[in-house]
Write a structure and sequence with these properties.
With 164 residues, this protein is of the alpha+beta class. It has a single domain, classed as Beta Polymerase, domain 2, CATH 3.30.460. It contains three helices and eight strands. The strands form two sheets. The chain has a six-stranded mixed β-sheet. This is Agglutinin C-terminal domain-containing protein.
Amino acid sequence: MCFKKIIKVQNPIVTIPQFPTWVIDRYYFVRECKKQGLEPASLLPNSILYGKIRYTDLKHTDLLIQDLMPHLPRSSTDWSQYCWWQAVTAFSRCIERYKINAMAVVLDLRSELENPNAHAYNVIAYGNKTGLQGLLLFEPNEDWEWSGIVPWGEHNYKPEIVLI
């Protein structure tokens, strides 16, 4: 007869920081995107434009972004799939961990960064209790020397389409 020793594994408690957040109609997020020249490409019916988004201020957005780097091993040399995977992972973690849905995946169709056809990364809105104040581009690929917040147009980051 074989006896197994039962070991109780205790999961460490992970504290997710809490940020001040505000809620605004999604329409205002879409309007900010259009101001930057981003064309919204809705994957859902138009009713999504009437939903709500939750956002935080610039200081806390910076802290949040530092935690959203997927830290995923690169298992493929197919850059187009890899950047898409990183952008979607950062987007879903933002919602799951922080309940902040003011982030979206953007596509740069003329990108010369990785793939001559397209590159995916993120845009995130920030503001205060009076409303949205702006948008930041976020490169979630930690393998790049300019990962994290990237200024508009720098390193050839000029997104054209935002998936909302």
